User: What shape does this take?
Amino acid sequence: MALSGDILRSYRAPRVVLRERLAHSRREGSALIYLTIACALIFVAQWPRLARQAHLSDEVPLQALMAGALFGWLFVAPLFFYGIGALLGLVLRLIRRGTDPFAARLALFWALLAVSPLVLMQGALVALVGPGILALVSGLAVIAAFLVILVAGLGAALEADRAEA
Assistant: This one.
């Protein structure tokens, strides 16, 4: 199925989608592509906020803000998320011996990719209304969606381990 269709299905049945992704491809390249696309979309989601920030304050030009966000989201964030994925893999191994750390990384990267459309909408909302309660509530909704998809994905990773044993 198309990637966009699976992203939409992740809001209804995240465990099923990740189980299918694990069965379909267990290549690190696929996980890296999911992470790269997610980080790129989150970088794009920053553009409206950065434009608003540059317009309201002349301290830092827009190009400098964009360069910082580009470096952060496309070079630093993937390394950070690989570290988090390694920690999640270690936690899953402590919970159940023999669990594949790849499944934990894939669950994390897929959760990031699945919530990236919400991050795009949240970025546009923050650019329109600025900081405030609406921005906070929308940010909390994105975090909640991420956590739900991540926890369901980690559950699917543990199930995949049990099915293989």
The two ends are 27 Å apart (CA to CA). Helices lie at 3-9, 14-24, 28-56, 62-95, 101-129, 133-164. Residues 54 and 62 are 5 Å apart (CA to CA). The mean pLDDT is 88.
